[in-house]
Design a protein that fits this description.
Layout: E1 7-11, H1 17-32, E2 36-40, E3 55-56, H2 58-64, E4 67-72, H3 74-84, E5 90-95, H4 110-118, E6 122-136, E7 139-146, E8 149-153, E9 161-167, E10 170-177, E11 179-183, H5 191-194, E12 206-212, E13 222-225, E14 230-234, E15 242-246, E16 250-254, E17 259-274, H6 279-287
Cofactor: a divalent metal cation
InterPro entries: ATP-NAD_kinase_N, ATP-NAD_kinase_PpnK-typ_C, NAD/diacylglycerol_kinase_sf, NADK
Function: Involved in the regulation of the intracellular balance of NAD and NADP, and is a key enzyme in the biosynthesis of NADP. Catalyzes specifically the phosphorylation on 2'-hydroxyl of the adenosine moiety of NAD to yield NADP.
Length: about 290
């Protein structure tokens, strides 16, 4: 019987020695199981006992592998997702970070759970990404993708900025605030949650717009259909340069008068989870919600 996965990539730049050990354990165990295994080439100098032909770039891994195992916290998953979503590849995470909303597997005893997943016992779900484009004088100056959120903010100096929000080219509202968080359901438990945004179930096709410290009491988070195209027009009177931050990892400079276009990416990230995965169990454990009463 054909295995669901034959070529497996191990991804994620480790922050500490324990995470490096997890990479090595995964590599050795997968090789013993008879899989073709490749490793993120950012680890080639650290894992010097792995043959060089087993290292490849993220793009090469996306093209060649059936499954990517991302080791680390959600930050590593976000970085990998922006690249891997372009390819036909499944992704699962081993949690070596703090919160770990996107990383299911326990690094201490991944063997039995991962074996079941590799044998085809898993849940599959698709998560959409956002595309962000900075338009200046009718030209696209920069763009990037985000799995969690795109955030308009003032950059290094904390100051209020003014901007208008359009949804499908229809004016929605103007705002004077510290910025705006535009989040996917995946990102609704990240920065958006800290800003008072709603938690969106991952299967929802929706985008939330969460104001950051608005200079009015009437401003509230807004949830729109994910097929809507969001346009922010930054006031020409704003001082200095603003930024749009994608997943807190990539910054796109914004000048006064620029337009920011945010829309659902045509690419999807295909996440897989062990069979016993429950999104609400993850929420309860990560957010400290109460257990059952009876």
């Amino acid at each position: 019987m054909k295995k669901p996965f034959e070529v497996i990539a191990i991804i994620g730049k480790p922050r500490d020695q324990q995470a490096i050990q997890t990479h090595k354990e995964l590599y050795d165990w997968l090789m013993e199981q008879g899989y073709r295994v490749y490793i993120d080439d950012r680890l080639s100098e650290i894992l010097d006992d792995v043959p060089q032909e087993h290292f490849a770039s993220l793009i090469q891994l996306g093209k060649a592998a059936d499954l990517a195992i991302v080791v680390g916290g959600d930050g590593n998953m976000l970085g990998a997702a922006r690249v891997l979503s372009r390819f036909d590849i499944r992704v699962i995470g081993v949690n070596r970070g703090n919160l770990g909303f996107l990383t299911d597997l326990n690094p201490e005893d991944f063997h039995s759970t991962l074996k079941a997943v590799l044998d085809g016992e898993y849940i599959e779900e698709e998560r959409f990404l956002l595309e962000t484009e900075i338009h200046r004088h009718k030209q696209i100056k920069s763009h990037n993708a985000a799995l969690n959120e795109a955030v308009l903010h003032p950059g290094q100096v904390a100051r209020m900025i003014e901007f208008e929000v359009y949804i499908d080219d229809t004016f929605a509202f103007s705002q004077r605030s510290d910025g705006l968080i535009i989040a996917t359901p995946t990102g609704s438990t990240a920065y958006s949650l800290s800003g008072g945004g709603p938690i969106l179930s991952p299967s929802l096709n929706a985008i939330s717009l969460v104001p950051m410290f608005p200079h009015t009491l009437s401003s509230r988070p807004l949830v729109v259909d994910s097929k809507r195209r969001i346009k922010l027009i930054v006031s020409p009177d704003n001082r200095g340069t603003q930024e749009v931050s994608c997943d807190g990892q990539v910054s796109l400079p914004v000048s006064p008068g620029d337009e920011i276009h945010i829309y659902q990416s045509p690419n999807m990230l295909t996440l897989i989870h062990p069979k016993d995965y429950s999104y609400y169990h993850v929420l309860r454990s990560k957010l400290g919600w109460s257990s059952k009463l009876f």
